[in-house]
Amino acid sequence: MESRKYAYLFAEGNSKMRELLGGKGANLAEMTDIGLPVPPGLTITTKACNSYYEEGRNFPQGMEEQLKEAIKDVEQKTGKEFGSQNNPLLLSVRSGSVVSMPGMMDTILNLGLTDETIKGLAQSTNDQRFAYDCYRRFIQMFSDVVMGVEHYQFESILEEYKMKREVKFDYELTADDLKELVEDYKVLVKRNTGRTFPQKPIEQLEMAIKAVFDSWNNHRARVYRKINNIPDHLGTAVNVQSMVFGNMGNDCGTGVAFTRNPSTGENLLYGEYLINAQGEDVVAGIRTPEPIASLEQDMPHVYQQFVDICNKLESHYRDMQDIEFTIEGGKLYMLQTRSGKRTAAAAVKIAYDMVDEGVITKEEAIMRIDPLQIDQLLHRRIDPEAKLTVIAKGLPASPGAASGKVIFDANKAEELGKAGEKVLLVRTETTPDDIHGIVIAQGILTSRGGMTSHAAVVARGMGKPCVCGCEAVKIDYKEKVLTIGDKVIKEGEMLSIDGSAGNVVDGNVPMIDPELSSEFLQILQWADEKRELNIRANADTPNDATKAREFGAEGIGLCRTEHMFMAQERLPIVQDMILAENQTERQEALDKLLPMQQDDFYGILKSMAGLPVTIRLLDPPLHEFLPSSEDLITEITKLKITESDLELLAEKEKLLKQVRVISEFNPMLGHRGCRLGVTFPEVYAMQARAILQAVADLRAEGVEVYPEIMIPLVIHREELKRLKQLVLDVAAQVEQERGITLTFTVGTMIEMPRACVTADEIAQEAQFFSFGTNDLTQTTFGFSRDDAEGKFLHHYVDQGIIENNPFAVLDRDGVGKLMKTAVKLGREAKPDLKMGICGEHGGDPSSIEFCQQLGLNYVSCSPFRIPIARLAAAQAAINNKDQ
Ligand code: PEP
Ligand code: MG
Q1: Of ligand 1's atoms, which has the minimum distance to the CA of residue 772?
Q2: Could you confirm whether 756 is annotated as catalytic?
Q3: Number of domains comprising the chain
Q4: SS3 of 705, please?
Q5: What is the pLDDT of residues 763-811, one digit of tens each?
Q6: How far is the CA of 837 from the centre of ligand 1 (A)?
Q7: Both 394 and 302 in a single domain?
Q8: Residue 584 is assigned to a structural domain of this protein
Q9: Are residues 129 and 209 in the same domain?
Q10: Which ligand is closest in space to the CA of residue 819?
Q11: Which of 436, 454, 623, 841 is catalytic?
Q12: Cα–Cα distance between 808 and 839 in angstroms, integer?
């Protein structure tokens, strides 16, 4: 049987082969193709990784032969020989998945060094010290990543040597010291693993490839995939590349750069490098590196060549690039390029600028921005008016501000975070093993590392504020305190950071809401030109309505009137209404509520002048307005003991009795929504009157209003028919009293499965449908929305039974099917029936895409999500057009 092709030389691939070669491999191939200086190498495919797992963690047939053949080619191109005692070829082995997973997988450098080949390296470089330094680094890395000997054990031996020799830095150890050290390292490996350190280069290579394949399933890679929704089946490719050395002297170095600023988007080369350093030193954040601009002084030729290459790469890929490079003996080599991760602010600025520069189209700009990521721009920052005590300054690694309890350990951060505490993760530096703590923290503060350190990269991707390289912060993990000068902050105390300025601020700080940049507003306008869905807001107050309008809402899709009943001064009247023993008593309470409600509607309709406003009549079960029986019992017990106020005691006892009568086993499925309208028509009549009188007043003032009266929780055509009639009767009265004709519509929420499947009948009575997907999800799943998320839903998601929390991301297969039925039936009955969604899903990009596919007219979401919805709706329209 002919085997598949598992090994591709860089010269054989290109950037379109991501699936097979992984992102890094595909781009190394592309850079080779466009003639950039890339050290020769090859990529083992993601298919090989998948086959490796299918075959019980064995290489697929034919892979090893192909690998050896490819190595021959690399030998030829470099003029070096793998395993040679004279001029040995050394390799790096790196993982490279289809979707970039920064810092998640292990890398091995200097592979191919053995007791024999080390002589060749020393000879060919004429540098014993350098050669042995490479060897000791290799043994350390390889033994850690491949053979499972922990890093710190090597570090302790290294420390011992430094102490013995009375030196401070690694580079002060001599070649002879390192030679001896290498022997000690080998003994350590033998003692820990029971085997000698492998002395055959090809064996080392195969072990390393296996280790990369295995790292696809290590804990931190799995966590990262889960957080970022990266499918497990993709597998990783392995890139095997000839080594170039950034640590061979002061004409060498290594660095990382972005073609534009990944934090702000500014069109300026941005990055860092270290002279005389190897591989991961820059990203690992061990030494604090130099800004890229200094390279112009250090090595002007190399800098100019680097700038040219950056420009070439950016125009080739038509996107901001994240680049790794090494300089060996004054010669520049490119080790990686990929689309750079960026903050939301940078994403917006870069997309806008690139349209301006004529590089991409407006449509591409819209598609380049992740709607969920722009949530960052809608987040808070420190109030500029606030008096701050800045106690330290670090690097502004990821924008936004955060306050939280100082916590030094990722596990503890996770624990407290899950318990609802706001925590600030403070560490000397973070590693991929801290990822669970970073996810939950409000922000990250590190004392070491640069703008491209692990903490910085991960925080930016997640949109978390981060200050790093804040060297004034001294952390004592043992005593659980940090000190900044004389100031001592204990674990658990409050601290704030400003990731945009790099400031560390004492205590808690006041924050303010964000303003949108002009570039962002422009892109939103482009989005508005493309989208087909209207965007409305869920808002219950004139304030929220005004905010929503500022963000671009085109109406209110849901005004929940019950929130108006909760206000302190109204609650007693609402309670009187509920507990009224007869119609007269109830009417008295309603008469008091009427002007208040009328005022509310007046305010909201006015702030939304010219736009539609959907007002929903009372929805929740009545007990929500009453004290709980537990509280009442406690009060009664106290009153009985003190015998202080017998009248009050009698009143409370009566109230308890009434609360018990009203109480339901399952109030969410009980006496709520339009069922209240059926049993207490006078409540709905009061609300209808309040709305219509407000409309009449505004009309008299010349304000244009478009009220839509919405009946919740309908399950049957007959319910809607009667309640609509009730509204129409009130309208007729108001019209007569005011001598005007009112314009308004009456429609219904579609939020019960029965409503979906009888939508054709319900449509006969409705002028619009609004999908209440919160209740529809609850009733379709049979999950109580108040309990499921806190109690068991995460197990379903963790175990992969369902992909997402259905209360956050619309369940297309279940709830979605019911919606589809309702849309079809509804439109069959009334072809131009207006339909929208007002459940929480109205602000979720994936759900918005589904609403586009269903052909709804609008989505409605909370005011702060309006920009997200505008962008997501444009993307949905563009994607829909492509299909
Ligand atoms: C819904 O059920 O989706 C809805 C919008 O109504 P509420 O959340 O108020 O029940
Ligand atoms: Mg509902």
Answers
A1: 3
A2: no
A3: 6
A4: coil
A5: 999 999 999 999 999 999 999 877 787 678 888 988 889 988 899 899 9
A6: 10
A7: no
A8: yes
A9: yes
A10: 1
A11: 454
A12: 10
